[in-house]
Every structure is written in structure tokens, then in C-alpha cells.
From TrEMBL:
Organism (species): Chinchilla lanigera (Long-tailed chinchilla)
Protein name: All-trans-retinol dehydrogenase [NAD(+)] ADH7
One CC-aspect GO term: plasma membrane
Family membership noted in the UniProt record: Belongs to the zinc-containing alcohol dehydrogenase family. Class-IV subfamily.
Top-level class of the enzyme under EC nomenclature: oxidoreductase
């Protein structure tokens, strides 16, 4: 049955308020308006950023449909959509690329003005395409992928190769690209350098993969959970340490381990204290430290400005520095060419209705990435 132009009823995981479980509900998904695309989601990953909303550390309006790391197929398009058509395999983009704002037009920029990090939860016309039990349900980060169907703006969707397996390339929608790009694009890791990665979850492992791809000769993984060391070594870390094994500050430990030669550090946890630790751990004069983990909302960071005065570079990194619509299709092509292996990051694949089980795997530290399939 042709669904174009019609309201679609489907299943979605609705979060009605913070610190409550997901509720699998029947929702109505309105047809796409001008410059919008309706997508049938095929696979979606569970990311720690989704959990920030559940815990209330990231701003959102409620009720909301979370999820922002996915792959799917275009079901229908609104007027004036030119870059995708029904049947195209696509990746929704939590970081849009309008190709018109200052950030999009600058070769070094990628933080598009259409981004919804602030949690407004509406499309450009100020409305939502979701309803449940007669109430509007809000969008999340331009994507909302914990649902069988979603509507995104054309600036938030990238057409990818039809051969791409959705249950794998969905990771290119957030976790893998963020970490890999932090090393190769934002940090610009150089061959023969020494890197330290704070946090060995899915994004941290992707940073390690990026450091290895860039030719780093020494990659030190850092995490309190030693159970993560084996996987970190498998994807390219040369050694792993736990701060709990030392009395000294981790910056001193790394300096002694490397002869004061850590060129690049990456904070992939989102903790304010660790961000300062990572900054202090790179070389005081020529080191670069990249903040990759999403910081908690409404928090202020305090640090000694001498850490920067001596010459260090401190950088932020959203979506690995990639221009989303331009670079995501290229990353998918690189994956198909076996330039990197996403299988190493996927520990669990579950049906969509087991989303709560997927989050329990995240909380318990058992999973790197859990992918939900429809």
C-alpha cells in the first residue's frame, strides 16, 4: 500500500519524562512537509547521549522520541527535496548541513545553524510530526530514530551506498564518526606520535582506530574498567592503564611512561575533571587535547590558565569535525572498501522492542554498541 502523503501509524519508544523507562507506543507520523523526508528506520544504535536525556543531564522537551544513530530507507519526500528519493538508503544526521550558514560555508566548520543541541524538539516550521494519544511528541537532535518511521529535514539526511548493511553503518551516524574523526580530522594526529585516550567505550575505541589509521606509534587507553582493555588492544591501543592503579595524577603517570612526549589526548567520557586531566596530560608546549565526550548541561569548568599559556591547544569536537552530508557517504564508502571494521564495535544486536534491555547492557558496561533492528 502506498503510504506517501498519508499519516503512518507505527511503533515507537516514547520517553514521557526523565528517569522513567521507555514506553513502546503506537504513534502517528505525519507526512513530510516541504524540504522534509520521511524515513523507515532499519537499524539504530544505543548511544550514551540518549541516556543523558533519560537522566536529565541533557535538555529536552517531553514526551520525546530519542535515538540519533541510525540507517534506513526513504519512504516519501516533501516538495522541493532534491538530494534523496523514495527507496534510497540513508543515514539520518543529528548534525545537519544546510550548506548555507557560516559554519557550513567555512572549510573548517561543521556546527550547522540548524543543529538542535538545545533540545527545542521541533522542525523548522515550529511543529512536530509525531503524535501519541492525541498529544504532540517532540523530536530529538533532528533525527528521533527510536521509531519505525521518522521525519527529518533534507539538511539532516545523507544518501549512502545501497550495498551498505544498515545494522553496521548506523554507527557512522554518530559513535564511530565522532571518535574516528576526532583523531584524523579534529586532532589531526601525525604519524609516529603518542596519543592517550580517556574512556574506552564505543567512541573511545573509534578514537583509537582513528589514531592507528593516522599512523600514531603509541596509543595509550585509559579507563577505570579494566574489562575494556582487551577490546581496546584489539582495535589498536598499544597499552592500557587504570588511574586507580596509581597515587600520582594521571598526567604525571603518562609523562613518566612516555618521556614527556604525549602529543595528543582525547577526553571521551564527558566528565569535567577528566577534561582537565586530559589537557594536563598532553605536552605542555605542543600538545593538543580534544574534548570528544558530551559535557553535562549547565556546568562550568575551572582550570589553571597556565595549562594553555605554555602552548597547548585545547579543542572541542562535534561529530568528529565532519561535514555531515558531504562526509558520511564517503565514510560509508570507506567502510565498504574495508578501510575500517565496525564489527569490532558492535557487541549486541537486539530487536527494537528490547530497547530497555539494550540500555541495561549500556549501564552494566557489558556492551560497546548495542544495535536495535526493526
Amino acid at each position: 500500500m502506498n503510504t506517501a502523503g498519508k499519516v503512518i501509524k507505527c511503533k515507537a519508544a516514547v520517553l514521557w519524562e526523565t528517569n522513567k523507562p521507555f514506553s513502546i507506543e503506537e504513534i502517528e507520523v505525519a507526512p513530510p512537509k516541504a524540504k522534509e523526508v520521511r524515513i523507515k528506520i532499519l537499524a539504530t544504535g544505543i548511544c550514551r547521549t540518549d541516556d543523558h536525556v533519560i537522566k536529565g543531564t541533557m535538555v529536552s522537551r517531553f514526551p520525546v522520541i530519542l535515538g540519533h544513530e541510525a540507517a534506513g530507507v526513504v519512504e516519501s519526500i516533501g516538495e522541493r527535496v532534491t538530494t534523496v528519493k523514495p527507496g534510497d538508503k540513508v543515514i539520518p544526521l543529528f548534525l545537519p548541513q544546510c550548506r548555507e550558514c557560516n559554519a557550513c560555508c567555512n572549510p573548517e566548520g561543521n556546527f550547522c545553524i540548524k543543529s538542535d543541541i538545545a533540545g527545542h524538539g521541533l522542525l523548522s516550521d515550529g511543529t512536530t510530526r509525531f503524535t501519541c494519544k492525541g498529544k504532540p511528541v517532540y523530536h530529538f537532535m533532528n533525527t528521533s530514530t527510536f521509531t519505525e518511521f521518522t521525519v527529518v529535514e533534507e539538511s539532516s539526511v545523507a544518501k549512502v551506498d545501497d550495498a551498505a548493511p544498515p545494522e553496521k553503518v548506523c554507527l557512522i551516524g554518530c559513535g564511530f564518526s565522532t571518535g574516528y574523526g576526532a583523531a584524523v580530522k579534529t586532532g589531526k594526529v601525525t604519524p609516529g606520535s603518542t596519543c592517550a585516550v580517556f574512556g574506552l567505550g564505543g567512541v573511545g575505541l573509534s578514537v583509537i582506530m582513528g589514531c592507528k589509521s593516522a599512523g600514531a606509534s603509541r596509543i595509550i587507553g585509559i579507563d577505570l574498567n579494566k574489562a575494556k582493555f582487551e577490546k581496546a588492544l584489539a582495535v589498536g591501543a598499544t597499552e592500557c592503564i587504570s588511574p586507580e592503579d596509581y597515587i600520582k595524577p594521571i598526567s604525571e603517570v603518562l609523562s613518566e611512561m612516555t618521556g614527556n612526549n604525549v602529543g595528543y589526548t582525547f577526553e571521551v567520557i564527558g566528565r569535567l575533571e577528566t577534561m582537565v586531566d586530559a589537557l594536563a596530560s598532553c605536552h605542555m608546549n605542543y600538545g593538543t587535547s580534544v574534548v570528544v565526550g558530551a559535557p553535562p548541561s549547565a556546568k562550568v569548568l575551572s582550570y589553571d590558565p597556565m595549562l594553555l599559556f605554555t602552548g597547548r591547544t585545547w579543542k572541542g569536537c562535534i561529530f568528529g569535525g565532519w561535514k555531515s552530508r558531504d562526509d558520511v557517504p564517503k565514510l560509508v564508502t570507506d567502510f565498504l572498501a574495508k578501510k575500517f571494521d565496525l564489527d569490532q564495535l558492535i557487541t549486541h544486536v537486539l530487536p527494537f522492542n528490547k530497547i530497555s534491555e539494550g540500555f541495561e547492557l549500556l549501564y552494566s558496561g557489558q556492551s560497546i554498541r548495542t544495535v536495535l533492528t526493526f
